[in-house]
Amino acid sequence: MAELKISPFRTTKVLRAQIDELLDVVSKAALAYKHGMSHVIRSSWDDEAEERFEQVSNFETRGDQLHDMIGRSLFSEMLLPDRSGDVLGLLGSLDRLLDEMEKGFVVARIERPTIPDELHEKWLGCIAMVADTIDQVVLAARSYFRDPQTALDHIHKIHFFEKETQRAALQIMEQVFRSDLPLDQKMQIRGHIWLVYRLADVADDAGDELAIYAVKRSV
Amino acid sequence: MGLSFVVFLSSGLFLGWSLGANDAANVFGTAVGSRMLRFSTAAAVCAVFVVIGAVVSGGGPSHGLGRLGEVNALGGSFTVALAAAATVYGMTKFSLPVSTTQAVVGGILGWSLFSATAINWVTLWRILGTWVACPILGAVFALVLYQLTTLAIRAVKPHILYLDQWTRIGLLVAGAMGAYSLGANNVANVVGVFVPASPLENVTFGSSFTLTGQQSLFLLGGLAIAVGAFFSRRVMMTVGKDIVSVGPVGGWVVVMAHALVLFVFSSESLQTLVAGMGLPLIPLVPVSSSQAVVGAVCGLALARGVCGMRQIRWTVLRNIAIGWVATPIVAATISYIALFVVQNVFEQVVFV
Hints:
The structure holds 2 protein chains of 2 kinds. Chain A has a single domain (11-218), classed as Phosphate transport system protein phou homolog 2, domain 2 (Methane Monooxygenase Hydroxylase, Chain G, domain 1), CATH 1.20.58. In chain A, helix 1 (10-43) packs parallel to helix 3. Chain A is elongated. Chain A is mostly helical. Chain A has 6 helices and no strands. Chain B is mainly alpha-helical. Chain B has a two-stranded antiparallel sheet with strand order 1-2. In chain B, helix 7 runs parallel beside helix 10 (247-264). The longest helix of chain B has 36 residues, at 121-156. The interface between A and B is medium-sized, with 19 and 18 residues.
C-alpha cells in the first residue's frame, strides 16, 4: 500500500530533526574540543590533534549548513512566526560557539605552543570547565524547545562555569607573567588561554540570550 | 421571484457583504495577523463554513429577530437593511466600533416606531440581555479555555515546532467553527428582515434534497457574507495586529471562545437540551461577534492576572462600550427617517 506522503507535520518533523542534529553537533564538538585541546596541552601538536581538529572543523561546517537550512525553512514555510527570530538568534549563538572552538584549534595548529608542565593541571581544568559551560548551553537550548521553565535551571549553571573558567584563565595568565619564561612565549601562552576565556564568554552570552528567549516563551 | 424582490434584497446583500468584510476579521483576524494562516486559506475556509452555517442553522436566530418586529413589506425590509448598512458604513468610516447586530435591531426598532407596531418588549429585553451576556460569556469561555490550554501545554510539554503546528490546526478548526456559527447566527441580520415578506419558494434538487424558501434566502445571505470575507484582508490585519500581543495560542483561545458564544445563541439542539434539563431557555437571537471577541480578549487578559490586566487599554474599551450604546440609537433614527422618505418620496409600501 502506498504510504500517505501528505502530513501537516512533515516539515515540522524535518525541521525538528535538523534542530536536534545541530544541538548534537555542538555537544559532540565540545567533547572533541575538550579531548583535542587537552591532548595539545599535554603532547603538543601531533596526528591525534590533527584528527580532533578535523572533527571540530567538520562539526563547524555541518553546523553552518544546518543553521542555513533551518533559517530558510523557518521563513519559507512561515513557521514559528512569533518566535522565529528568537530561534534563529539561539541557533546563531550555537554556531558562534562552533566557530570559536574551531578557531582555538586553528591557532594551536599554526603556532604549536609549548605549555610548561606546571600549568598543565590548571589549563586542563580550564578546558574541562569551558566544555561543561558549552554542554549546559546545549542542555538549556534543548529545554527551551520543550519546557522553557527548565531552561532557566540550566542557565545559572552556565554563568557559574563561565565565571570559574575565566577565574582559572586569569590565574594562568598571572602565573605566566610572573614566571621567567621569555616574553614571546608569555605572549603566545596568553593568546591561547585568552581564546579559552573568550569561548566561555561566548557561551555565557548564549546563556544570557537564552534566558530572555525562555522568559519570553513563558509569559 | 420578481425583479422588485431582487432590487429590495440588494440592501440586505450589501449589508451581508459589509458584515463579511468586517466580521470575518473577528473569526480569522488573530490567525492571519500573526501570520499563522495565509489570508487566502482563511478567507476560503470562512466563506465555505459561513454558507453552510447560514443554510443549515440560520433559522433559530432569524425567528428570534422576527419576534422583535415582523417587517411585513418588502419596502420596509429594504429600508431597514439599508439603514443598518448605512449605520455600519458610517460608524466604521469614523473609526467607531460597530456591531451589525445592533444596527439591525436598531433598524427594526425604527420600523416598529414608524409603523406604530407594538414592540415586543419581552424579546427586546431578551436581545438587550444577550448584549450584556455575550461579552461576559466570551470572557468566561476564554478564561476557562486559557486555563485548560495552559494546563495541557504544561503537562504535555510539546516541542515548540509541534505546538506551532497544532496551534495552526487549532486556529483553522476554531476558525471554521467560528465561521459556521457566524453564518448561523448573523445571517438573520442580513436577510432576517426579508423572511416575512420573502416570495421565495421551495427548490428541490433531484429527488431527495429540498431547499426551503427560507433556506434559499439564507443561502443568498450566506453567499453575500462569504464574498465579503474575501474583502476583509485589511480589517483582518488590523484586528490581528491589535490582538497579536495575545500570541498564537492566546489567539486560538479567543477564536474558540468567540465560536462557542455564537454557537450558544444559534443552536436549536443546544436550546432543546438546556430546556430539557430544566434550565432557563437560551434565546436564539443574532449576537455581535465583535462583542464576543472583545469579551474573549478581556477574559484572556484576566486569566493572565495583574500582568494581563495592565495590558488592557481601558480607553479603547470605553470607546467600544460607547459604540455599543450609540449604534442601535443611530440605526433606529436613520431607519425612521429613511422609512419616511421611502414611503412619502418614493411612494413605496413600507408596512402593511
